[in-house]
Amino acid sequence: MPVRLDALDRKILSALQEDASQSLDDIAKEVGSSKTPVWNRIRKMREAGVIGRQTAILDPEALGLGTCFFVLIRTSEHESEWQDKFLGVLRARPEVLEAHRLAGEIDYILKVRVANARAYDDFYQALISEVRIYNVTALLSMQEIKSTTILPV
Question: Where is each HTH asnC-type domain found (predicted)?
Fold first, then answer.
């Protein structure tokens, strides 16, 4: 169930999404409030689960991880034992940035970030050695057009 947020909460969330490292004074000034009410609202939104962990956004190119693949997976296995193993394998692989279970012909889609095609093949070989998969299709991203973590609040 969604948490009730007023206009000030949404302004605070927008400011935090833009730059969570800014000071409480800066956020309060930006949203037109004072420090204590802003801090109390942030605390309440953390407690309610609206605000999760805070992280730094890294540049994959600068880290030598400039190649992004979207991996489409079809499986003939749908038992909970297979699914538990598959999900465990995905969670253990740092190359997997996102994994989604889908409705339709494709069962799962993964966003995989690696150094190059050879590194993707290493990932692929490790994946299929650990869990049985019916079909895998890898799509190389030629250009990232939009990537954001900012939700429309």
Answer: 5-66
pTM for this entry: 0.88
Token pair in block for residue 104: 């339709």
The SS3 assignment for 10 reads helix
Our count of domains for the chain comes to 2
Per the CB < 8 A criterion, the answer to whether 86 and 127 are in contact is no
The H or E element spanning position 69 is strand 67-74
| Token pair for 133 | 């998969």
Residue 14, Cβ density class (10 Å: 0-12 exposed, 13-18 middle, ≥19 buried): middle
Per-residue b or e along 98-118, where b marks 16 or more CB atoms closer than 10 Å to that residue's CB: ebeeeeeebbbbbbbbbeeee
pLDDT per residue over 41-90, tens digit each? 999 999 999 999 999 999 999 999 999 999 999 999 889 999 999 999 99
DSSP string for residues in 90-143: HHH-TTEEEEEE-SSS--EEEEEEESSHHHHHHHHHHHHHHS--SEEEEEE-S-
Token pair of 117 as six digits? 């095609």
